[in-house]
Fold this protein.
Amino acid sequence: CIFHNKGGPVKVDKNYPVKKAQELKSGQVLIKLHYSGVCHTDLHAMLGDWPLPSKLPLIGGHEGAGEIVAIGDHTVTDLKIGDKVGVKWLADSCMQCELCRKGFEQNCPHAKLSGFSVDGTFQQYVVSYSNH
């Protein structure tokens, strides 16, 4: 489910491209989604009624569960293909700034947010990040 403009409309795009394994960057994983929840935050992202703008076009969703089907080359992780994983609001953070080093990754000024600043879980395959 994708929307191109603030306020919608939301449409189902059955031809949206899926990233191939070789297109993943280091630190990225491709997840085949089995489930996705819908949160009130998804409505705010679509309506654009927060003080921060979401990316456009946007695939919403940040409450997903699935399994890893590909891992980007040169990714340092204990994750492996077939692992069951969840996708949450915090998709990624820099892990280098003072906030990240103190354990406050959710406040990282460079944070990537699923279904807000990066595409989320309202799709069959989602690119996410091995750190989170």
